[in-house]
Amino acid sequence: MTVAPLRIGNASGFYGDRFDAMREMLTGGPLDVLTGDYLAELTMLILGRDRLKNPSGGYARTFLGQLEECLGLALERGVRIVANAGGLNPAGLADAVRQLADRLGIPARVAHVEGDDLTAGHPRSLAAHAYLGGAGIAACLREGADIVVTGRVTDAALVTGPAVAHFGWAPDAYDRLAGAVVAGHVLECGTQATGGNYAFFTDHDPTRLRHPGFPLAELHEDGTSVITKHDGTGGLVDIGTVTAQLLYETSGARYAGPDVTARLDSVRLTQEAPDRVRISGVRGEAPPPTLKVGLNRLGGYRNEVVFVLTGLDIEAKAALVRDQMEAALDAAKSRPSEVRWDLARTDHPDAPTEETASALLRLVVRDRDQDAVGRTLSGAAIELALASYPGFHVIAPPGKGSPYGVFEDVYVPQDSVEHVAVLHDGRRVPVASAIDTLALEPAPESALPEPLPPGPTRRAPLGVVAGARSGDKGGNANVGVWVRSDDAWCWLVHQLTADRFQNLITESCHLKVVRHTLPNLRALNFVVEGILGEGVASQHRFDPQAKALGEWLRSRHLDIPEALL
Questions:
Q1: Distance, CA of 408 to CA of 236 (rounded, Å)
Q2: Taking the CA atoms of the chain, what radius of gyration do you get in angstroms?
Q3: Which terminus in the chain has less CB density within 10 A, N or C?
Q4: What is the pLDDT of residue 553?
Q5: Between the CA atoms of 483, 487, 491 and 494, what dihedral angle is there, to the nearest 10 degrees?
Q6: What's the first-to-final CA gap in the chain, in angstroms?
Q7: Are 231 and 178 in contact, with CB atoms under 8 Å apart?
Q8: Which helix (H) or strand (E) holds 98?
Q9: CA distance to 35, 246, 424, 494, 545, per residue, from 250 (Å)
Q10: Rounded Cα gap, residues 257 and 260, in angstroms
C-alpha cells in the first residue's frame, strides 16, 4: 500500500527569525509537520551564557511565545511540531510547553530528546553537544507526541525523524534517508530556499521578495521530494534558490550525518512547475561511525575601536595613529595578546558628503585579561583625541571589553552517546546507534566536461554568469558557486580552480583551499580552512560568518566568453 506524501514545513531558520512565521505556515495551507531550526554554533554559546545566569534556562524562549499563539491552531489542524529549540535544556523547554498547554487548556502531548549534552566530559567547555540524528524524534512521534523538542540534533534530523515515523523506513534505507536529508538541508534555513539572500534577486520582481514565504517539502515514500511554498506567499522556488541552499555550509560530495551519508553529487533538480522543484536521484551510504561534537568555550575578552579618516592623506593618517596606538599599547602595564588592524578604503575622491570622503581604520584587540582590552585600549585611544591626525574622531569610544567565544569540533564513537527519547507519558526509550557504519572518505572527483572552444572574451564580474552562497563551519568557510547553463559550466569548471579562487579572494592566499565539483548541480564548492579563526563567536574578521564571501567573489572580474554574457 502506498503511503501518502508527508507535507513538512519550516517556520524558523535561526533563533530570532520571523516571529509570525509559525502562524503563517499553519494558516497558509495544509501541513502534516512543522519544523523549526533555532540552533547554530553561535546560538549554543549564547544559550550557554544564558544558562550560567539562570540554570533553568538555556532554551529558545521565542519558541514558547510562538506556541502561545499557535498551539491550539496546530492541534486543531492536526499539525505536529518538531523543533530543536530545546538548545541546552530540552527537558526544561518540554516542561515549559506542558505548563503553557495546561494554562491554555489545550491537551497537548509533549515529548523531548536527550543525550546530546556531553559537557560533563569536556570540563573546559561552556557547552559540548553531540549532533544527534532523527531516530529519537521518530520514536517520540510514533508514540503519539504532538510536540517534540530537542537539543543539538543535525538540522536535517528535523525532517528525517518525521519521515522515518511516517514512512516506517528501516535504518538501512539509505537512499530514502538521504533524500530526506537533502530535503531537510533545503528547508533548514527557512526563506533562504524561497528567494532570501539569493544571488540573482535582481532577475525577479522585487515585490515578490519583500516578504518571502517559508518553504515546505512534499516528501514521498521513495525519498524523492518537491520543494515548494504555500500558495499566495511571497518569494520564489526555482532551481537556483534550491541549488544555492544545497551548497550552503556543505563541502564535498559526501554530506555525512548520524542517520546516513547523503551523496550530493547524485542530486538531480527539476523545475516541475512554478514554485515547485523536484529533488530526485539522491543516493545514500551508511553513516560514519562517529558523531560530531560541537565545543563552545569562552576564549577571553575582545574590544575594538574604529578610527574615521577623512579626506586627503588616508594612508599617512592611518600610519600615524597606528604608530601612536602601538607605542601606547607597548608602554601599557598589560599589552593585549592579540592586536589586529584593518583599513577599509570606503573613501571616494572629491566626495559630495563627509561620510563618502571617509575611510575606516579598525583596531581589534583580544586578551584573557579584561583590563588589557578595556582600560588599556580606551585610555590609549581617548588620549589621542587632540594629538593625532587632522579630523581625528572614532565611531564610538571603546568600552570595557566583552567576552568572546571559541568553537571547535571533535568526534566521538556513535555508541558512546546515550540517545534517549523521553515520551509524553514520561517513559524513556533508548535509541540505538547505527549498526552499519562506513568511515568517511572523500568522494572521487567527477569527470570534467570539455572546455568551451576558444572565442572572444570580455572583462566582467563573475557574478554576471555565476551565483554564489557562502557560510561558516567552525573556523572554515565554504563558498558554493553555480551556473545556469551547460556552456557556463564547461567554462566555470576549467576557469575557477582553487588557485584562481585564491588569486581572487586574497584573504585565502596563505590558507588551504579545497575545491569540490558537483556536476549535476553545475556547481563548485570551495572550503577555505581557517579563514574564520576560532569560529564565528571569536569575530575574527569583518564578516565573521563569511555570509558575504560569495558576493565578494562574484564581484571580482575575469575574462568571460562573450557567448556567455
A1: 36
A2: 25
A3: N
A4: 97
A5: 100
A6: 51
A7: no
A8: helix 90-104
A9: 21, 8, 35, 21, 14
A10: 5
Give me the amino acid identity at 280. Answer: S
Task: Provide the phi-psi class of 534: left if phi over 0, else alpha when psi is between -120 and 50, else beta.
Answer: alpha
- One-letter amino acid at 218 equals E
Q: What digits encode the pLDDT tens for the residues 103-142?
A: 999 999 999 999 999 999 998 899 999 999 999 999 999 9
Where does residue 142 rank: exposed (0-12), middle (13-18), buried (19+ CB within 10 A)?
A: middle
Which cell numbers hold the place of 85? 529549540
Question: In whole angstroms, how far apart are CA 277 and each of 210, 236, 241, 261, 282?
Answer: 21, 11, 10, 22, 14
Q: Which three cell numbers stand for residue 518?
A: 558537483
What pLDDT score was predicted for residue 1?
67
Question: Tens digits of per-residue pLDDT, 317-358?
Answer: 999 999 999 999 999 888 999 999 999 999 999 999 999 999
Query: Does pTM top 0.85 for this prediction?
Result: yes
260/185 Cα distance (integer angstroms): 13
H or E segment and range at residue 108:
none
Place of cell 560530495: 253
- The grid coordinates of residue 335 equal 599589552
Residue type, 85: A
**What stretches in the chain show pLDDT beneath 70?**
1
Which three-class secondary structure string do you get for 64-76? HHHHHHHHHHHHH
Q: Say how many residues make up the chain.
A: 565
477 by Cβ neighbours in 10 Å (0-12 / 13-18 / 19+) ranks as buried
Question: Which one, of 515, 517, 500, lies nearest residue 449 by Cα?
Answer: 517
Distance, CA of 502 to CA of 512 (rounded, Å): 9
User: What is the pairing mode between strands 127-130 and 290-310?
Assistant: antiparallel
Per the CB < 8 A criterion, the answer to whether 425 and 94 are in contact is no
Residue 59, amino acid = Y
